[in-house]
Amino acid sequence: MATIAFRSTTPTSLSIIRHAFRSKSPRFQSTSSSLSSLSDDGDNKRPSIAIVGSGAVGGYYGARLWESGSYDVKFQMRGENLKKSTSDGFVVTSIDGDIFIPPDQLQAFEDPNDVGPVDWVVVCLKSSSLSDIPDLVYPLLESKRTRILTIMNGLIEEDLIQLLKERAGGEEFCAALYGGMALVCSNRTGPGTVDHSFAGLLSGGLAISQERVFTDEENQQAFQDLWAPTSIDIAYEQSLLAGRWRKCLWNLPFNGISVAMGGITVDKIVNDSGLRQLANIIMDETVSAANADMAAHGFGKEMYLDDADKKKMMDLSDNMGPYRTSTMIDFVEGRPLEVNYLFTKPVERARALGVCVPHLDTLVTQIEAYQRFGNLK
Amino acid sequence: MATIAFRSTTPTSLSIIRHAFRSKSPRFQSTSSSLSSLSDDGDNKRPSIAIVGSGAVGGYYGARLWESGSYDVKFQMRGENLKKSTSDGFVVTSIDGDIFIPPDQLQAFEDPNDVGPVDWVVVCLKSSSLSDIPDLVYPLLESKRTRILTIMNGLIEEDLIQLLKERAGGEEFCAALYGGMALVCSNRTGPGTVDHSFAGLLSGGLAISQERVFTDEENQQAFQDLWAPTSIDIAYEQSLLAGRWRKCLWNLPFNGISVAMGGITVDKIVNDSGLRQLANIIMDETVSAANADMAAHGFGKEMYLDDADKKKMMDLSDNMGPYRTSTMIDFVEGRPLEVNYLFTKPVERARALGVCVPHLDTLVTQIEAYQRFGNLK
After folding, report:
1. B271 touches chain A (CB under 8 A)
2. Which residues of A214-229 are buried (b: 16+ CB within 10 A; e: fewer)?
3. In the predicted model, what is the mean pLDDT of residues A70-77?
4. What pLDDT score does B112 carry?
5. How far B377 CA lies from chain A's nearest CA (Å)?
6. CATH 3.40.1490.10 fits B15-238, yes or no
7. Do B366 and A260 touch (CB under 8 A)?
8. CATH T-level assignment (fold) for domain B242-374
C-alpha cells in the first residue's frame, strides 16, 4: 500500500460528471469489472455497500445508492435513528426527488460484526468521531477487496490512515481509501428522516491504495462506476489534497463564521456586507494556505486553487438560503464540534508553512474557545 | 481656541497621583485660582460641576466629587434613574467605600437649560450618543469659564469638537476640553444605583483650550485640582492621543472579545488560553496602530505604548473577576452598542496609517454585524 496520502496521478483538471438520468427505479446494472461484486453473500451478486453513519450525509448519499437498485446497501445506525428507521422506514425529502426506504427493505445494523466484509464502506461520520472509525470499519473490510470512501469534513487522512493501520496491525487494511467532499445542504430532521435542500455534488479522490491489487486508473474508474447508477453529480479529484482544501474553501468561511457569530445561517453571512467581506478574506487566506501546501507536496500550479474556485463557493452560498451549517447545528444543539480536523489542522498547516492566516486564526480561536466553554468535544 | 486635538505640551511620562486621604467628609477646600468658582449662583462659592449622564461612570465619579464636599454638583438624569434618585436618593456601592446622596441633597436635573453655566461639565455618555452632546452641554457653558471633561470611550475628540463648534456657531464654546479615560469596573445595577467593583484610575488629557484664557499648565493644574479633594486616583496625560490609545489597549481586546464571543465576562477571556492569546495579539496590533498614529501626529517615542502598558492591562484584567464590559452589557441587554468610536475608528485609523490589524479587524467586523443584526444603533 502506498504511504503517501493526497495522490496525484495525472495533473488534469477536475471534471464534473452529470448523470443524465435521475430515475427512482433501478435502470442501470454495471458491467464494469470494478463494480462487479467480489462478495458471495450479496443479494443477486450486487456489490455490497455499508454506509457507516447514516445521518445527514450518510443517510442522503446512502439512500441515493439504495435508490439506484444496483447495490446491496446496509446502513449502520444507532439509537433512535435505528429504532425509528427499522419500524417506520427511512425518509429522505429532497429537492432532487424524495426517497422512502420501507422497513422491510431497509438493511440496518448497529454492530459491524453482524455484517462482515463488503465491497464498499462509505464512512459519513463527524470528524470529531475519527477515533471511532477503526472499530466500526474494520469488521467490514477485506484487505484486497474493500474500498473505503470517507465523505467527511476536514484534513483527516493522515490521522485516519494511522489509526486504521494500527487497528489492522499493518498497512494493508483495504484495497483503496478515498476521501469524499460533499457540497450538499443536507440536515437530519429527526430519527429516520433527512432533508436535502440544496446542491449535492460529491467529489472524491484517492488517499492510498494497494498498488498490487488496483491501479490508480482502476480506482478512479471504480469511484465513477459507484455513482454512475445514481442521480448524484460527481467529480474526481486527481489530487485529494486539492479537493480537501477546496472543501475548506467553503467550510472555513461559512462553517467558521456561522459558529463564531454564535450560530447564524449562511444567508446572514452572504447578505451582510461586513461578514461577506470577511468570508472573502477567509477564502483568500485559505487559497494561500492551500497552494503553499500543494507546493510543499509537489503538486504543480495547475492544481492550485484560484479566484474561480472562490467565486464558485460564493455563488453556491448566495443560493443556499437560510442553511444551517453542520458545525452551527452542532453548536446550537450543544453537540461535539468538528473543530480539530475542520479548523485547527488547516490553521496549523498554514502556520507550519509560514502562511499568514490572521482572520481565520481569530475565528478558529473563538470556535476552539466555544468548544472548551461548552465542553463540546 | 487651538484647533489641534491631542495636545502634548511637554513630553514627560504619565504620572499617577494617589490621594492620601479617602474621607467621605469634606476635608479639602481648594484655594487654587483654577478651582475657585467664577459663578455667582454657586452654593457657598464652591465650584459648580454638572455631571451629564449619571450612569455607571458619571454616577460613580460624580458621587465621588459630591462626596468630597468641595463642589456644588448637579446630576443630569433621565427617566427611571431621575425618578428613583430624586425620591429615594442616589446609591453607590463601592469597594472603596459606599456613597449615599440623600434625596434632599441630590441636585438632579433633566433639562440643562434649568441649570445654566457651570465651572466644569463632566460628560459621561456612551459614545453612541455623541450627537446628543451639543444640545445637552451647550446651556451649561460659558465660553471663557467652563471646562469640559468627557469621560468617554473611543476616539471621539475630532467629531465632538466639530459638533460643538457647529452648535456654538464658532470656535470658542468653552475654556478647555479634556478627554478622560476611566479604568474602572462600574456598572449601573438599577435606577439610582451604581456598583463599583474594581479599579478606578481616571486619566485625562487636554484636547483643546482657549490659549488667551488659560495656559496648558493652568489647565493641567485645574484637572489635578478638580480631583484633589476626592479619593480618585488620577493621571494626567501629556498626550490625550496616547491616553485614548492606552484606553483602547484595554477596550479593544476585552470589550471586543467579550462581545464577539456572544457576551462573555473578562475572567472567561483571561482564563482561556486561546482567548488570552488573542487578547495579547489584539493588544500588539493596538500598540502598532497607536504608535503609528502618534508618529503621524508628531509625538516622540517617549510617548509610545509598549509592553509595560500591555502588561498593566493584562494584570488589571487578571484581577477583574467576572466583570461584564460595558459593550457586553449593552449587547446582551439589546441596547445601542458603542461601535463607531470604540471599534470602527481605531481600525479605520490603523488602515489609513497602513498598519495591519487583521485580528482586530475580524472582531470589529463581527461586532459591526451584531450591531446591524440587532439594530443596536
Report:
1. no
2. bebebbbbbbbbbbbb
3. 98
4. 98
5. 16
6. no
7. yes
8. N-(1-d-carboxylethyl)-l-norvaline Dehydrogenase; domain 2 (1.10.1040)
